[in-house]
Design a protein that fits this description.
Blueprint: H1 3-12, E1 20-23, H2 28-36, E2 41-44, H3 49-66, E3 74-77, E4 80-83, E5 88-91, E6 94-97, H4 100-110, H5 119-127, H6 137-149, E7 154-157, E8 161-164
Parallel strand pairs: 1-2
Antiparallel strand pairs: 3-4, 4-5, 5-6, 7-8
Length: 165
């Protein structure tokens, strides 16, 4: 199934998440079809990663403005806070420095509290799609987060992945 079919299914089910299409199809007709099909933005390959990040930030700002909340600068769950401005975590009132990858991994967990996230999901969200799925990098970084943010916060679900409790 190609991106246009995925978009059609998502929108057909009434899912209203922001969608940025990243595709090798770069004709004007393809761009128009993607945007009219419900994409919020369309970027043909090759593209600049910095531009993609800027477009993602724009979409997130637009979503938070539309909901009347303003820009979100903190995520929190059960005594754990991530601050986007300082790029630090606060654990029960104590500030903790995190590396960029640790911060992104913690953010992924905080955006999905209680949900089991597979290693593959975490790899694609934090390290990108072209990272080696046989790598143990997820396990290593979850161990780092347990050491810095509390081992009781991150539960291993055997054969499935990890969950923020």
């Amino acid at each position: 199934m190609d991106g246009f079919e995925v978009l059609e299914r998502i929108r057909g089910q009434g899912v209203n998440v922001p969608v940025i299409m990243l595709t090798a199809r770069s004709s004007v007709a393809d761009r128009v079809a993607g945007l009219e099909g419900g994409a919020d933005d369309y970027m043909p390959k090759p593209f600049s990663f910095e531009e993609l990040l800027a477009r993602i930030r724009l979409r997130l700002r637009s979503e938070s403005s539309a909901s009347g909340q303003g820009e979100v600068t903190r995520l929190s769950h059960n005594g754990l806070v991530l601050d986007y401005l300082t790029r630090k975590a606060e654990v029960d009132g104590e500030w903790v420095d995190l590396s960029a990858r640790e911060f992104t991994l913690a953010e992924t967990f905080l955006r999905n509290p209680g949900q089991v996230l597979s290693r593959e999901q975490l790899l694609s969200n934090v390290w990108g799609f072209d990272f080696d799925p046989g790598s143990n990098v997820v396990d290593v970084y979850v161990r780092y987060l347990r050491g810095k943010l509390g081992k009781e916060r991150f539960e291993t679900v055997r054969g499935m992945g990890y969950r923020l409790v």
